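User: Predict the structure for this protein chain, please.
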Amino acid sequence: MYKEDSHTDVIQEVEFKREARHSDQQPEPEPQNKRKRVRVREIFDGTILVRENVIRQLPFLLFLTVLGIIYIGNRFHAERMVRQIEQLKIEVSNLRSEQITTTSELMNISRPSEVAALVELRGLGLKESMEPPKKLKK
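Assistant: Here is the predicted structure, written as structure tokens:
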């Protein structure tokens, strides 16, 4: 009987310790699933920026801001390139027309009749040969 008493005493002591441990712990508060409503006043006075969920999202907001700045810069660069391309197209068109005009003038001036007229006009004293050129033999 003595053994049974000691065994029940041990069981009671273990249960007492278990209860004491549980009573020392404070009950955990249940997580609040309710979201606070955003009020217009909080937006205007800036208190919305100090909320915990806004502060937690701050790195992501900074990342989005950097992406936005890069996007805006890229767009400005692309628009500048488009304007430059248009100016270069106009310049190429002008140069092509100038090249065609110069080529046609050169072909007109290099005709034998035009060469003879220019020589006579400038008074160089040159005359066109009436004999065909001769081949030299070795």
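The radius of gyration is 50 Å.
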